[in-house]
Amino acid sequence: MAPSKRLLLLIPATSYRTADFVEAALSLDVDLVIASERPDSMAVEFPDHLLGLPFADPAEAARQMREYAARRPIDAVVPVDDLTTVVGAVIAEALGVRSNPVAAVSATRNKLRMRERLAQAGVRCPSFTAFSADEDPQVAARRVPFPCVLKTLTLSASRGVIRADDAAGFVTAFKRIAAILAAPDVKDLGPGTDRILVEGFIPGRELALEGLLDGGALKTLALFDKPDPLDGPFFEETIYVTPSRLPEGVQSAVRESAAQAAKALGLFDGPVHAEIRVDPDGPQPHPVIVEIAARSIGGLCSRTLSFGTGMSLEEIILRHALGLPIASLEREGCAAGVMMIPIPGRGILQDVAGLEEARQVPGIEDVTISLLKGQEVVPLPEGSRYLGFIFSRADTPAGAEAVLRHAHRHLRFTIR
Q: With pLDDT > 70 as the criterion, what percentage of the chain qualifies?
């Protein structure tokens, strides 16, 4: 009997994805090794299965994993969140296992570099320029068109993203983002945390594409509509619903745009998550790439997806990385949705009421509150964590969306 393959999961301490990826790994016949940037007492007890790695220093992390792999060879490296995509690519390259090129992954983690590569390849993306965070915002405001969107180069989940419609709004947004960049948890992210990207605002509908690259070919696993307008001044994402309700011609253009973006960046293997804007009412659909990441969908949103006879997105990603067979990449037939529960205000979470009523709404699969009572709640653009998630299933996308909104009306949050 052949020995089990050994899988290395790179999981940031703050990740939402830990349980889902670990559950998927345990369902496979693999020897699971988990690495985090914060080693704990369990790592001492299980030194071969729980590792502490310096994610912020990819070269050192790769050196440590080469030493580890000399006695316990690694067959696949899977980063589960934005914070581990680059270090994952560096480790995979050092160990000689399948991965995207380090330069390609690095480009997805720096929005300015991403924009430059997309523009050079002729892929539609917003007009852009960048400023030092120390620059005089009043001077910078004279060099940009309005409306525009200011954002950090490295943060995700809409943190540090603000729309400005005039010079006064630009100055306010610039100062607010500069303060976010000065926060210790952001400065620790390294290069790219001292600049502010300014993009032309792109009107239209926004979609999210979940895909899997295999030898450069992009297979679309799911295309999500975002039914709530994302026009600013902040860009809090709330509802994702799949399948998309847009015409097939528009969806086809979106899929092709995502494939072109992945190719332009040099991505050719593993999961990708793309955010795309499109005007479905225009004479021709011209999708515009907002973001593309070398990882799967964030938060707990992957729980909306099921493939073939019930395979999770995480299991598909792991099977792909390990070279194991995948029975089907076709999503289940029914519509599904997820709501990232909007944060009503800043303060300390005291109480959540109406959970059972929300869970009992027909079509609701689960309601999960991801913050504990007593924890601080911080809305966008400063915040980086979701209040919770609501999951639905229905016969139609419109039904999945309606069920989410109905369940959300039952929830009442006390924030002091």
A: 97
Quick one: how far is CA 10 from the chain centroid? 15
The CATH number assigned to the domain holding 159 equals 3.30.1490.20
Confidence of residue 334 (pLDDT cuts 50, 70, 90): very high
- 92 and 134 fall within a common domain: no
CATH number at residue 393: 3.30.470.20
Cis peptide before 342 (omega within 30 of 0): no
Residues 13 and 86 grouped into a single domain: yes
Rounded to 5 degrees, φ, ψ at 25 are -65, -40
Cα separation, 300 vs 321, whole angstroms: 21
* pLDDT range class, residue 127, cuts 50, 70, 90: very high
- For residue 61, is it within any domain? yes
Range of the domain at 341: 334-416
Report the alpha-carbon distance of residue 310 to residue 331 in Å, rounded: 9
Q: Dihedral, CA atoms, 121, 122, 128, 133, nearest 10 degrees? A: -10
Looking at 57, 77, 106, the residue that finishes a domain is 106
In a domain, 277, yes or no: no
Each residue's pLDDT tens digit, 370-379: 999 999 999 9
In a domain, 377, yes or no: yes
The DSSP secondary-structure symbol of 387 reads: S
Question: What are the residues whose beta carbons fall under 8 Å from the beta carbon of 104, sequence distance 6 or more?
Answer: 89, 265, 266, 267, 268, 294
Cβ–Cβ < 8 Å for 78, 321: yes
Predicted TM-score (pTM) of the model is 0.94
